[in-house]
Structures are given as structure tokens and as C-alpha cells.
């Protein structure tokens, strides 16, 4: 078998835990000796043993003289767990094959250097493109100290997110609803504006996914006009963080007594996206799923902090000047000033089109 074969297995192991390791990366490890897989593992949750440790525990004494395939450079520092590079050295492995090098300044080549200094043969870059894509959000988070932002919308073919009086009405098929909820499992938080809460009263939970993992619900509410009878306030299924401007009334803040509800007042009268994302980064939110209305969508797009867009397009046309567009005014007055995108992936989901794109 080839290095690519075993690394493919390690990547599949890593992918199983996608969405549940934040603020840590997803990592898979496979240990091979004499053509036989003798150990494997994945990092499942922050603070729990890393993939290499699970694999070494399975391999036991047989790890000596083996080859280890790991999707991300083994750590070399003491955090919530001991350094994996040292564990590999102490186990007597002969060779380590790595897909991605870790950009974390606490690692950043130190794990590789540590193992090579100990006499272990280290090879890097095997299936690197796949491994980098798998941890794209972690790499962004560790370098920028802000969440990786996905802006998701479901629209008609003519770019509307609602008809004139149709807030809360589904635009896309049930297959898209399933796809969206499965995506929600992979994110640490879902964000909407207060307008969406008032119009739709959404739960903002994962109800159709494969696990019961629930994202944090984040509401942008500049003046704290949130009623106390909305689902995000009363159901307690997941934490609800309401971000307000600096002039939100103290008595209104004090009126929220629910243990799962947190009011976070920012430093300016209006909500600044840079400050918002900085605060979320401090709170270890690594992946953010934005499902806002036209105003929130425009604010994020103009901020420059959108890492990717997921757009579901239904084969429907609404028309009219009063239907709700995907974006509020973006201050684009001529085509040369338009926000330019690159399509990364296009697929059919049920009868609808799903486009994943990035800003150029």
C-alpha cells in the first residue's frame, strides 16, 4: 500500500469529528507496521487525547519501528494535553508521514524538527490539499484570532430571500433543509439579526442533522429590542448570545435572567463587525454560520470578513420591487465596483442549486 492510501484513511478518520473539536483542528492518525494497520485514532473534542495518542494506545508496544500517518503536524508544546511529538519519539516509531504543517505559532515546524532531531524520518505534504481544506477554518482562526465566516442564504432565481409578505415561508426544498441542518452541525455558532428573529421566530438549532450537537445562537440587536417570548430566549436548547451596541439600556439587559442567555455589549453605539468577530474569537468561536437578512448580509460582505458563501438557488421567480433582496445597499454604483466571486463548487440538492463561492 502507498503513503496516499494510509493518509486517505487518516483523513477520513479526521473528518468524522468535523464540527466538534473547536477551537482545535480535526486530526486523524494511522499506525502501520509490516503492511498491517496496528493503530488508528481521531481527535474528538478539545481537551481530550489527540489522534496520535489514541493510535499509539491501540498499537501498544508494536508501535516501535512503525510508520505513523497523521493529517496535521504533531504538536510540540504542553497545552491541555502533553505534546504528541514527544509521545511518538518515546514510542520508538521509525517514520512519520504528515499531510499539513501546523501554522499555530506554538507548533509551526517545531514538532517536525523535534522528531527529526530524535532520528525519526519525517515526510510532509502527502495529500496536503485535502488536509488543508479540512482544517481551513482552524488555520484561519489560529492566524487571525477570528472565526471563519460562512454567509449562507436561500434565494429565488431572481435573488429574493422573501416575497413581499412571505417571511418564514420556505424557498427551497426539504432536501436543502436537510443539507442546511447537517451543515449547522459543523459550525460553532449561527448568527442572525434581530429582524430575522422578529419576522420568523426561528429556533436556530440543528434538528435534522446526524448528531444532537447544537451551535451557539448569536443575535445582533443594537438597541436590545428582543422580546422575551421568542424561541431563542425561552427554549434553552442552546446558548443564546445577544450582541448590542453601547447604548443598550441597563434595565433591559438586567431583564434577561435565563441561564442560557448572555447579553454582550460592544463598545460602539452600532455593531461593528470587526469588534464582533474579535469578541467571538476571544470566546473560542472558530466557525460562524451567518443566516442573516439583507442588512446583516450587506454588513458582513462590506466588512471583508466573509470567507465563503453558500447560496441555495430555488427555481422560482418572485419579481416586484417589494420582495426582499439578498443584500441591502452595497454602495455599488457601477459593475466594475461589484463584489467579485469565484465558484468553488456547484451541485444539485434536490431540485435546487447549491453554489459554494469565495470572494476574489
From TrEMBL:
**Span of domain CMP/dCMP-type deaminase:** 1-114
**Record's InterPro entries?**
APOBEC/CMP_deaminase_Zn-bd (IPR016192), CMP_dCMP_dom (IPR002125), Cytidine_deaminase-like (IPR016193), DHFR-like_dom_sf (IPR024072), Eubact_RibD (IPR004794), RibD_C (IPR011549), RibDG_C (IPR002734), Riboflavin_Biosynth_HTPR (IPR050765)
What Gene Ontology molecular-function terms does this entry list?
A: 5-amino-6-(5-phosphoribosylamino)uracil reductase activity; diaminohydroxyphosphoribosylaminopyrimidine deaminase activity; NADP binding; zinc ion binding
Binding residues for Zn(2+): 50, 75, 84
Reaction catalysis annotation? 5-amino-6-(5-phospho-D-ribitylamino)uracil + NADP(+) = 5-amino-6-(5-phospho-D-ribosylamino)uracil + NADPH + H(+); 2,5-diamino-6-hydroxy-4-(5-phosphoribosylamino)-pyrimidine + H2O + H(+) = 5-amino-6-(5-phospho-D-ribosylamino)uracil + NH4(+)
Q: What does the UniProt keyword field contain?
A: Hydrolase, Metal-binding, Multifunctional enzyme, NADP, Oxidoreductase, Riboflavin biosynthesis, Zinc
Report the EC code(s) recorded for this entry.
Answer: 3.5.4.26, 1.1.1.193
Quote the cofactor binding remark: Binds 1 zinc ion.
The record lists NADP(+) as bound by 154, 196, 200, 222, 293-299
Q: Which residues form the active site?
A: 52
User: Where does the chain bind substrate?
Assistant: 184, 204, 207, 291
Q: Which GO terms describe its biological process?
A: riboflavin biosynthetic process
- Name the job this protein performs: Converts 2,5-diamino-6-(ribosylamino)-4(3h)-pyrimidinone 5'-phosphate into 5-amino-6-(ribosylamino)-2,4(1h,3h)-pyrimidinedione 5'-phosphate.
Q: Which family does it belong to?
A: In the N-terminal section; belongs to the cytidine and deoxycytidylate deaminase family. In the C-terminal section; belongs to the HTP reductase family.
Question: What protein name is recorded for this chain?
Answer: Riboflavin biosynthesis protein RibD
Amino acid at each position: 500500500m502507498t503513503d496516499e492510501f494510509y493518509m486517505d484513511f487518516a483523513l477520513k478518520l479526521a473528518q468524522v469529528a468535523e464540527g466538534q473539536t473547536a477551537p482545535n483542528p480535526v486530526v486523524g492518525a494511522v499506525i502501520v507496521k509490516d503492511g498491517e494497520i496496528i493503530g488508528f485514532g481521531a481527535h474528538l473534542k478539545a481537551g481530550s487525547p489527540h489522534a496520535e495518542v489514541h493510535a499509539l494506545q491501540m498499537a501498544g508496544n508494536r508501535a516501535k519501528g512503525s510508520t505513523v500517518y497523521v493529517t496535521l503536524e504533531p504538536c510540540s508544546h504542553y497545552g491541555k494535553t502533553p505534546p504528541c511529538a514527544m509521545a511518538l519519539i518515546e514510542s520508538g516509531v521509525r517514520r512519520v508521514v504528515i499531510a499539513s504543517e501546523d501554522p499555530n505559532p506554538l507548533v509551526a515546524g517545531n514538532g517536525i524538527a523535534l522528531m527529526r532531531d530524535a532520528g525519526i524520518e519525517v515526510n510532509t505534504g502527502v495529500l496536503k490539499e485535502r488536509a488543508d481544506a479540512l482544517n481551513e477554518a482552524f488555520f484561519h482562526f489560529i492566524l487571525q484570532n477570528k472565526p471563519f465566516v460562512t454567509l449562507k442564504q436561500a434565494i429565488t432565481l431572481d435573488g429574493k430571500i422573501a416575497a413581499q409578505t412571505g417571511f418564514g415561508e420556505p424557498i427551497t426544498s426539504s432536501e436543502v433543509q436537510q443539507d442546511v441542518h447537517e451543515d449547522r452541525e459543523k459550525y460553532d455558532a449561527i448568527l442572525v439579526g434581530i429582524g430575522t428573529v422578529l419576522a420568523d421566530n426561528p429556533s436556530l438549532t440543528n434538528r435534522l442533522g446526524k448528531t444532537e450537537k447544537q451551535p451557539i445562537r448569536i443575535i445582533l440587536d443594537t438597541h436590545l429590542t428582543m422580546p422575551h417570548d421568542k424561541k431563542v430566549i425561552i427554549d434553552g436548547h442552546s446558548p443564546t448570545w445577544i450582541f448590542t451596541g453601547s447604548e443598550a439600556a441597563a434595565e433591559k439587559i438586567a431583564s434577561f435572567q435565563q441561564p442560557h442567555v448572555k447579553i454582550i455589549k460592544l463598545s460602539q453605539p452600532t455593531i461593528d463587525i470587526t469588534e464582533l468577530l474579535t469578541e467571538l474569537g476571544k470566546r473560542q468561536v472558530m466557525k460562524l454560520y451567518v443566516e442573516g437578512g439583507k442588512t446583516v448580509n450587506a454588513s458582513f460582505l462590506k466588512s471583508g470578513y466573509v470567507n465563503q458563501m453558500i447560496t441555495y438557488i430555488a427555481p422560482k421567480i418572485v419579481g416586484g420591487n417589494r420582495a426582499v433582496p439578498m443584500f441591502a445597499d452595497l454602495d455599488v454604483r457601477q459593475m466594475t465596483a461589484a463584489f467579485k466571486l469565484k465558484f468553488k463548487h456547484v451541485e444539485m440538492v434536490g431540485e435546487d442549486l447549491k453554489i459554494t463561492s469565495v470572494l476574489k
